[in-house]
Amino acid sequence: MIPSVATKGGVEEMARLTRRGFVKASLITAPALAAVAARAQRPPPDIGNLRAEKDIVFGKGGDMDLTLDVYHPPEGVTPKRLAIVHLFGGGFFVGNKNAGYIINDAKALGARGYTSVSANYRLQSQGSWPAQINDVKAAIRWTRANAGRLGVDTDKIVVAGYSAGGMLALMAAGTNGNAKFEGTGGTPGVSSDVNACIGVYPLASAETAKGLFPEGQATPENIAAASPTSYISKNFAPTIFIHGTGDTTVPLASSIDFFNKLNALGVPTALTAIQGAAHAFDVAALDAVEVMAQSVDLFLDRLLVNPKPYPTFGGGRRGGP
Q1: Backbone region of residue 22 per phi and psi (left: phi > 0; alpha: psi in -120 to 50; beta: other values)
Q2: Is the pTM of this model over 0.85?
Q3: Of the candidate ranges 18-32, 34-48, 58-72, the one whose mean pLDDT is the lowest
């Protein structure tokens, strides 16, 4: 699998070519996404040589215990002291922290020194919006509060989301410091800010927030308030998008559009388009998982682990090379 290069002109052209797909992305229903996620919920793969802590209670969602799993890098791998909080997909109707694609990605990222935290959040049947983002914020707070025990730094907390979970990750990245979405799920008094975001084939268009609301409550105002596009600003957390060009469930155009808006504001952002990859490619396409992990590693390492800007291009001499 070879990632496409997200140059300014190339991204604009990709957006034009996939505009029809972008319109389609805004019309996807939550049940349709749930059906895709259900097909992706195969038995989780073996965690390999990751070191796991399972079923840790990090807070309450109403009367529910909210749990997460921690996957530490293998023995002998130098840790990068950065935690990635993973959020599963499933259209807000199905899914959980044991999703096989999360474990595949945690293995690839763990081999590069990253600590992964896979967290549950309430499904639509278990809690109405904003329960989902409240639970996400609680998982982030727990991760930061336990950074010392996990071997990570408090200023290196990243959120990653897949499909519907990608929408929640983008919401978290756009609402740093916004008390409205904190909730009371656990670990009060700790910041839920994220230092970066990874959107993996995320629901990134405005209309997809419609799936969070029961019939009669999907008003324009409610949809806008639950859409990450409403929170795009210069203060948005640095974000990388990973998306397959063959995704017919959540077309690439939605990530391109979000990328372009962040890039225009000067937010550090990147886009890796994986040639031919479908939605939930990381269930089985392990070569594409490696492309994703390499892209994420490059982005996070230069941004947070070993901050290092790219050199500027001085240009060729006039009249010759």
Answers
A1: alpha
A2: yes
A3: 18-32
